[in-house]
Amino acid sequence: MTRKRTKAARAKQSNTRWYESDLPYVVLAVVVGMLILASRIHFLPIPLDRDEGAYGYLGWMALSGGTPYVDFYEMKPPLLFYSYAAIVALFGKTPAGLHLAALLIHVFNAWMVYRLGTRVWERTGGVIAAMVFLIFGMNMQAAGFALQSEHVVLAYALPGLYLTLVGMQDRHRRRLFWGGLLLAASALVKQSGIFLCAAGVVLVVLYALPLRNWEIRRLGKTVLAFVAGAFVPLVVCGLLLAVAGALDAFWYWIYEHPASYVTDRADAGLDQLIFFWRGISERHWTWLGLAAAGLLALPAVRGVDWRLKAFLLVFLVLSFLTIVPGNRYYGHYWLLCFPSWCLLVPGCIIALRNLLRSRSGTRKLVWLPLVLLTAATAWHFSGLWRYYFNTELDTVMKLAYRDNYFPEHQIVGDFLRDQLQPGDQLMVLGSEPQIYLYARRKSPSRHFYLTFTSKELPEARRWEDEVIQTISTSKPDYLAFIYEPYSWMFKATSPRKLYNWAHALARTKYETVGHMDLVKGLHTNHLITGPQAMTHSPATPHYIKIYKRTTQ
User: Fold this and answer.
1) What's the pLDDT score for residue 361?
2) What is the DSSP string of 288-310?
């Protein structure tokens, strides 16, 4: 039915004026795509953020044959480790390599938004949705330019939704099988992907109704293909963890430990929501307004199956639920909301175009939706041109991440890479795993992200002792000590045994070979090295010291 509708629409377009056809929308989308592509290429060497560093490091460890949740850990499902392992294997672990992967994944996700949009709105709608998604995907407050795990989640979920939709429309079991498999895989990258899986289930239910008695058996086999596909990645991951003897550790890091990550205070969560919403919506109000108008116009749009309209509504709600767990609402969480918003924008444009066509007095104004979309695009890029093509990438990092010092961490990591000799070991005292990637060294401890040792948990004291034992045994040749609260996330009752012990160790058995005062602002702080570093007194409360071992 959808194919017939598409052919009929194309035949009708052959008799319309050029500004009523798909062509100007395609041209506009190509221009936007080229600008976004140029901007992402410009952003390739931008420093890594903390999450990129962590996931890149985890992928490196998985690629090296480490056992998830035993040799390394995170509060994420196992497919995150193996997805990043594939990325590291293909693109390397440098900023340019990881960001090239992010570029390609974002383009792929935009293509899948186009395919979904075409199924809902015809080709014009698909083109508009993909164009807006390309723009939203570079949202600075969502750190869309970085290789966030949400990009990877969408790389599984969007084709999963598309194959599920096509499979149910055409009763195609093989496509449904792959749709279920990919949707389940998205939840095995990050737990919030379960809500996108639910969107796929909603599609299955919507297209299973209404049921006739003679269809029940055939439909049952079709739905079974979807369920079977969903079980495949679950079973495979479960078997791999069982063989590695990591099921108990998996359960702890996926289910038990994340409970401590939740913001308990409702008012604190609301403050977080408001704060990050303001950042996400800044300079994107036009697109959000068009999405809201598309939502309101949804019931009035003719020629769109009611089941697709229902899916867009449910998809919008479920996408918002992906950012709710943990009650933190960080900027990059919102990346999972963008596809649902972008699929609503065409509703506004198409509804307005149909309205103008339907009345003899307004047919001459049928070009108005195209002008509206073009003006919104021009306004967006004119306001954010200095962001998209800022020559000072360190400044972009400072604006996007505020109180973090990610450009400085790259300077420290590059310095260490030059200093380290073959066989030398490095321990980063703090939670800046990107330094390991810059220095091309692995942590001697499975606790590469020391924030976990600062949590107000009984296990934290045991983890502190474990790190102390590892450092005492391995005697790292270099220490990168981050004297900055955000890197340790101390609270009033946090254990500080490791911090105090490491500080004393550095002062007695190491010498200072690098020092960097951390001053807030848009500038990048300078690393002091050589004899001057040994005599330099910290000029600020927060700083980084690089130590080299002098005694055994």
Assistant:
1) 64
2) HHHHHHHHHHGGG-TTS-HHHHH
